[in-house]
UniProtKB/TrEMBL annotation:
It comes from Streptomyces kanasensis. Belongs to the D-isomer specific 2-hydroxyacid dehydrogenase family. This is Hydroxyacid dehydrogenase. Residues 111-297 form the D-isomer specific 2-hydroxyacid dehydrogenase NAD-binding domain. It comes from the Bacteria. The keyword Transcription regulation does not apply.
């Protein structure tokens, strides 16, 4: 048994996390995020359970190490918020959840795409005020149109299967071609070709230096004026300022974003009584054809259940001295063996 402190735990997630660790470890669930101001609260906890919006830079990791932390287990697949090189230098182990239900994110990406295409948010807002006009609500069939999928791993493949069910032509872009997507009829093309030909573009690649601002001003300029752009992966894949300028020019039929490159300190929090100081996010919110959600694509009972189960297993592996596929940085020599 080990002492665990978990950060950024939302109310719907807490019972699942506590149940996964019950009778095995003592866990303290906190609703605030881990950063330089809150790192002191981890003092005395051998294991820190982090969320994707926590900040684990070299300074925070150093504070954790001083406080007795030896292992960080992150409840997400992405880990761009963790300085893994610093963790390796100071001897803190790091593990993540390498995979969970791909359908949660793929289905949500389609929910965004359909809501944008068929103006569902505008329509429901009207009908709540008993305005039943159809003016400005015309969408278009997706059947027979072209979808571009950037990233054809598990989530991208699940997304492509749904596109196949809609009867769409699929274009793919990735460092390696996926035979499953090929079987669905996907044609792999160069990135610029995908942007230029697609009626709907959906992003499913990880955020690494090579993909930062993958959708920049040049890529946006290539897209059809009436294309739809969806991002349920990582906010840093899109140059948000360039996206604002594109929308101001009247280009793109709609945008669905579940992530935003400066979402840390905003998403998962109630900011309704505060002044929004992020001018780019505030501007994006003003466009009627932009739908923004708060990084909830993964948030299904199935996916979160898998995430907390894997997190519990990562803690068990740490205690047993095992190094599985989820481990990014093995614990240092002063950690458990």
């Amino acid at each position: 048994m080990v002492e665990v402190v978990a950060y950024g735990v939302v109310p719907d997630e807490r019972p699942l996390l506590e149940a996964a660790l019950a009778d095995r470890h003592r866990v303290r669930c906190l609703d605030f995020f881990l950063d330089g101001d809150t790192a002191s609260t981890a003092a005395g906890y051998e294991v820190v359970c982090s969320s994707v919006n926590d900040v684990l830079d070299a300074t925070v990791l150093g504070a954790l190490r001083e406080g007795g932390t030896r292992m960080v287990v992150q409840r997400s697949t992405g880990y761009n918020n963790i300085d893994v090189d610093a963790a390796r230098r100071i001897g803190i182990g790091v593990a993540r959840v390498s995979s969970y239900s791909p359908y949660s994110v793929a289905e949500f990406a389609w929910a965004l795409a359909l809501a944008v295409d068929r103006r569902l948010v505008r329509a429901t807002g009207r009908t709540r005020e008993f305005d039943f006009r159809l003016t400005g609500l015309m969408g278009r069939d997706l059947h027979g149109r072209t979808v571009g999928v950037l990233g054809t791993g598990k989530i991208g493949t699940a997304f492509a299967r749904i596109a196949h069910g809609f009867g769409m032509r699929s274009l793919g872009w990735d460092v390696t071609e996926n035979p499953e997507c090929r079987e669905l009829g996907m044609e792999y093309v160069e990135r610029d070709h995908l942007f230029a030909e697609s009626d709907l573009v959906s992003l499913h690649v990880p955020l690494v230096p090579q993909t930062h601002h993958l959708v920049d001003a040049a890529a946006l300029a290539l897209m059809k004026r009436d294309a739809i752009l969806v991002n349920t992966s990582r906010g840093g894949l899109i140059d948000a300022r360039a996206l604002v300028e594109t929308l101001r020019d009247g280009r793109l039929d709609g945008v669905g974003l579940d992530v935003y490159e400066e979402e840390a300190g905003v998403f998962f929090l109630d900011k309704s009584l505060e002044v929004m100081t992020d001018d780019v996010l505030a501007r994006l919110m003003t466009f009627r054809n932009v739908l923004i959600t708060s990084h909830q694509a993964y948030f299904t009972r199935d996916a979160v259940g898998q995430i907390v189960d894997t997190t519990a297993r990562n803690i068990d592996d740490y205690l047993a001295g095992r190094t599985g596929d989820d481990v990014l940085v093995p614990p240092g020599p002063s950690g458990r063996r």
